[in-house]
Design a protein that fits this description.
By secondary structure, the chain is an alpha/beta fold. It has a domain of 272 residues: Rossmann fold (3-Layer(aba) Sandwich). It has 18 helices and 10 strands. An 8-stranded mixed sheet has the order 3-4-6-5-7-8-9-10, with helices on both faces. A two-stranded antiparallel sheet has the order 1-2. Helix 8 packs across helix 9 and helix 9 crosses helix 13. The structure holds 2-acetamido-2-deoxy-beta-D-glucopyranose (6 copies).
């Protein structure tokens, strides 16, 4: 149960995270998780959004209800929930000017301030609001003490997506009332798990949010809505499309790793070749590290750094004289940079995200992955049983794998949403393995999929830069136009009702 097996890279693999790091928590152990579980708890540092809390932003705290759904004594406890607000561009309540609300996900919101919302605020004359998700950042119940809030399953019980959505609703309703902005339409925005929340928020609270931009939101990833395979199929596809020979080299490397490992002193040899930080105890430590490296590169395969291309250039560019394992090592160096050692570095203390998101994936956000038939990876058994056992070991709770799809839907999503839902943009980049659990088809006139073949995880909701490729600029323009139409229709409805 020691966390000492984990490296910064391997420990944090997170479903969502477009974003920033959590605070480290000393003294907590993360149990040993299989690599596929860790992929679901991904390192949030890979895609740090631009962050500059200028004086235009005010940080505020809302006295939030601990438990929105019960009337037990502790339900009435309050905790301070952080939100950040920016009035600079707002057209005001009298103009019924819109509110763009960023829904925080499994990390502190600090890293999310600005970006896409800020870029479009002026043209919408929008008020910007960013709300932190409960149990992350500074928004931890029980007097903001991490030890109680995050260590005791009976208090962690108040960490759920349903409570989080209710928090968002309560704050947004309160803000509109306080600002006298009854008629200001709210558009909710989120990425990854936050994107999932944004789309669910529109479905569950249509009277609060006029529409949702759900970026890289794998809403079909839960329980058995889709097969468990596609995440790694997309990773393999990204590599294959980048370089056939690189994909081939990686495919052949697994067997070679096992072959060398089975030789006398094989693990020592592998440890040397891969400059591991600690001697390898098994070949799977190395294989897991490589699987995570490739998955991370694919998920964050952005057009600026092109990590998949960097790995493949190194593998393909290695001297034909060196053996396959040295080529693979060259890929690792290209991915991580020149480090003093690779594989199994000393693990940092787990972050809030490691712990709290681990809890979330052990309760509602159950998304087992598997590799059965992949062109690049060795088979990896589907791990639902292991997943369930790990959760019991970690928290003593049995996950509810079917609850997310029961409560939010997912099966036959087109049929369910076609006539019932409206005003949701599901944006994706097809390089992102999570796009395989996203909505990639237009379901109705206003429940639409806007994707790019070259985009990666949450790319569209990052800040625009001068280097942005045309397809990304276009994707954002389409999203803005769609939101503009929703708002125009809303104002027309409002005028019609007032007459
Ligand atoms: C943050 O914004 C302020 C005001 O716009 C600017 O002066 C400062 O240089 C910025 N800081 C960073 C780190 O970008
Ligand atoms: C929140 O609760 C505290 C303590 O009860 C109180 O002092 C503070 O004024 C409240 N804040 C708001 C915004 O209501
Ligand atoms: C908004 O409208 C009210 C009532 O019509 C008026 O009293 C107030 O001055 C207006 N506020 C602004 C900022 O225009
Ligand atoms: C790593 O260091 C070697 C020489 O020590 C250098 O040739 C290479 O360019 C460096 N690679 C990176 C990715 O910095
Ligand atoms: C395995 O994958 C390949 C290509 O991705 C596909 O053509 C084949 O049908 C799959 N086989 C099985 C048994 O799923
Ligand atoms: C869905 O509709 C939007 C808006 O009309 C369009 O931009 C987008 O390309 C469509 N998506 C697909 C997958 O056809």
């Amino acid at each position: 149960m020691s966390s000492s097996h984990y490296s910064l890279l391997t420990i944090l693999i997170l479903f969502s995270v477009c974003v920033a790091t959590g605070k480290n928590l000393n003294g907590y152990n993360i149990p040993k998780l299989s690599v596929l579980r860790r992929i679901f708890i991904r390192d949030p540092t890979k895609l740090v959004r631009a962050f500059n809390l200028s004086e235009d932003f005010q940080t505020l705290f809302y006295n939030q209800t601990l438990d929105h759904f019960n009337y037990r004594p502790e339900s009435y406890n309050l905790f301070k929930q952080k939100y950040v607000i920016n009035f600079k561009y707002w057209g005001g309540a009298n103009a019924s000017a819109p509110i763009l609300a960023y829904l925080g996900a499994e990390a502190p919101i600090d890293g999310n301030i600005g970006d896409f919302e800020l870029d479009i605020a002026a043209q919408f004359r929008a008020l910007l609001v960013y709300i932190e998700h409960r149990f992350y950042g500074e928004s931890i119940p029980y007097g903001l003490t991490l030890d109680k809030g995050l260590s005791d399953p009976s208090t962690l019980g108040y960490l759920s997506s349903t409570q989080a959505l209710a928090d968002y609703a309560e704050i947004l309703v309160y803000l509109k009332q306080k600002l006298n902005a009854k008629n200001s339409p709210i558009i909710v925005i989120g990425g990854s798990y936050g994107g999932v929340l944004a789309s669910w928020f529109r479905l569950k609270y249509p009277h609060v949010a006029l529409g949702a931009l759900a970026s890289s939101a794998p809403i079909l990833y839960f329980s058995d809505i889709i097969p468990q395979e596609p995440y790694f199929s997309v990773v393999a596809k990204d590599f294959l499309e980048t370089s056939v020979s690189c994909h081939q080299t990686i495919r052949q490397s697994w067997e070679e790793i096992d072959r060398v490992a089975s030789e006398p002193h094989g693990l020592t040899k592998l440890s040397k070749t891969f400059k591991t930080c600690k001697p390898l105890q098994s070949s799977s430590e190395l294989k897991d590290h490589l699987i995570e490296t490739y998955a991370g590169a694919a998920q964050y395969n952005n057009p600026f750094k092109r990590p998949v291309e960097a790995i493949c250039n190194a593998i393909d560019g290695a001297s034909p004289k060196i053996d396959i394992l040295r080529k693979i090592f060259a890929g690792l160096v290209a991915s991580g940079g020149n480090l003093t050692c690779y594989v199994n570095p000393p693990s940092p203390a787990p972050s809030q995200t490691d712990l709290a998101w681990h809890w979330q994936t052990c309760t509602e956000m159950v998304a087992p992955m598997g590799i059965t038939n992949n062109t690049m990876f060795p088979p990896y058994p589907s791990e639902l049983d292991e997943f369930l056992n790990d959760c019991k070991r970690s928290f003593g709770v049995p996950p509810r794998p079917h609850w997310a799809s029961t409560y939010y839907g997912g099966h036959d999503i087109e049929l369910a949403l076609h006539r019932f839902a409206s005003n949701i943009i599901f944006s994706n980049g097809l390089q992102d393995p999570y796009s395989s659990g996203g909505i990639l088809k237009n379901i109705s006139d206003t429940v639409v999929a806007v994707y790019t073949t070259e985009g990666s995880h949450c790319l569209d909701i990052l800040s625009a830069t001068e280097k942005d490729p045309t397809w990304l600029v276009t994707q954002r323009k389409i999203e803005v136009e769609i939101i503009r139409k929703w708002i125009a229709t809303y104002y027309a409805d409002l005028r019609a009702i007032k007459k």
